[in-house]
């Protein structure tokens, strides 16, 4: 940029902006990885279940505390969790539910926070 005549102040502001964006992206992808790992573990822990609908999913829950938490969560989040347990990627879940991929991540993060105490 210096060879193009850009002043040092502008170069420094761009560097600071780029660094902030980089850190923001890194935090986002770290959370994405944590959420994915957690839900994959849940999916692997119950491979024999053939749950196809949200109602079947809720009916299959034996832990009363877990059921109480999930019954209060909106249906779209439960559908996303069910699809994740069935092995779908976040991108596939977003396409099926008609929401953005980032929205799926946020919903899964919020659900994971609620489930930490169970």
Automatic annotation (TrEMBL):
Coiled-coil blocks: none
Pfam families per UniProt: Sigma70_r4_2
Domain annotation HTH luxR-type: ranges: 87-114
Top-level taxon of origin: Bacteria
Gene Ontology biological process terms in this record: DNA-templated transcription initiation
Gene Ontology molecular function terms on file: DNA binding; sigma factor activity
Annotated signal sequence range: none
PROSITE patterns: HTH_LUXR_1
Name of this chain's protein: Sigma-70, region 4
Native organism: Marvinbryantia formatexigens DSM 14469
Taxonomic lineage of the native organism: Bacteria, Bacillati, Bacillota, Clostridia, Lachnospirales
